[in-house]
Specification:
With 519 residues, the chain is mainly β. The chain folds into two domains: 4-183, Galactose-binding lectin (Jelly Rolls), CATH 2.60.120; 225-488, Jelly Rolls (Sandwich). It has four helices and 32 strands. The longest helix is centred in the middle third of the chain and has 7 residues, at 243-249.
Amino acid sequence: MSYLKLAVVGLAVLFSTIITGLADGVKPPSTGELYSYEGTLNLSELHPDAGVTTGITDSNGAKMIKVDIATTKGYPGVSFPIPNGGWDLTGYNGVQIEVRNPGTGSITVSMRVDNPGDWKLSPWNTENVTLEPGEGKLLKVTFGTSFKQPGFALAPANISAIKVFVQGLKKPETILTGKLMAFKGAGGSTPAAAAKPAAPVSQTYLTTTTSPTNHNVPYGQEWELVKDWTFGNNRPDATIHNKDELDKDFYYRYIYDHAKLDILPTYWSYHRDYPEGDPKSLHVFGADTLTLKGRIPEGGGLRLRGIETGMLRAKMPFVPGMYVEMRCKVTQGVGSWPNFWLNPGVEYDNHTFSKLGWPPEIDIFEFFGFKNRALSKTFSSNIQVNKKPDKYGPPYNIFSVFDKSDYTPGMDFAQDFHVFALDWIENRPIWSLDGHPIKQTYYEWHAAPAHILICNSLGIEFAKADMKEMKADESNWDFVIDYVRVWKHPGVVVPSTVPPEPEVVAPATNAPAATPPTP
């Protein structure tokens, strides 16, 4: 994935872990940056307190760390990573970080910089700033002072901890932080007061992508390859060339009703599969692609069960710690609804089932072809709990470039191939587009292992008024896939599809009700 360079270290509600140096101090780079972050939103080097989560967000066009503080007890915050031996900040006058308040009430943010030793004996300097709603300031700790008065004579050559925190909260709060820097002289100037952050700025990423020749690494990462489904009947790197090979790894119906369910109540088309070469085929191999087709069969039409479409349900279970990406071109036109998602449940090799249920589901993408979205430029990526967060758990965005539930980066996804991915970090899944992280959500999955679904759905039942403008143009209904590939993080065990003992009996139907978004 592409990397975002963010100097992050003082998260204004964070750090509470103190790291003591053991070796010679480390000099910072000439820029004075003390935590230069490059990666895919994996903030594992930060040490948030219990009840504190962190992520990346856009604030007035700038990338900042978003610190969400759910607890009101004590001094919740985050500690920045300290190199072995601590920081040697000889020649610098102190440490500073920009902090912003995106909330609706004032909040006081503190930063503390420590030398090694018992913190109760105060071998530290500290400072705080009070931020009004929408306001941003530089929070600066000058060595040898605390609260703008002479303080402990801190040794710059042995900085062992840097901590940003709040206290006295009456309700959960959020703060934003920028670059953590060592400064010389008087330090930087106070930033202009930031207006309350508006909706995230749309970002145009790549206008096209190329199909990777190396199948052993995901788009920009290096994990263990689990499955490589590269499609095409005339390409040297293909792993699936025809329908018979496709049958080995995929089903073509939903897992419910003993794996016979061929439609959901939210759309019109129903799913079928035909043998290789059948003119009615809905799984058509090209030289270097697989196309999930949409066709109107004899006697069909633009109505419920009047259209046949292709779908894929992967046989392999998918669990936290795994990563999936697909390179594809989607369908278009009023009534189109291409979707790529994770749904709970495992079908075992003897066609018995794990415990089934719905929700939750994780939507990697959905394009809704409403009448004002005939072009496939806007998609949604969500965790669906069917409006019952008390029962199935509340998803909570850590960061997002989406405007509410929609993202419109600028390109038409039906005109060229793009790479959509989900890195299912446990409790913190990350969505990516063309290698760029676009969203991270906190959500605890308590359902059975999931399976991957790729569905060409047509005719949106909950937008019937819009469907009056739907056209029977099968040339718009091709969902074209280059590849789907799955990796796993080190140590992750992929569940087996061998039936457990005793064998599981298929439960009663509990198919998704698929609560739709507002058109």
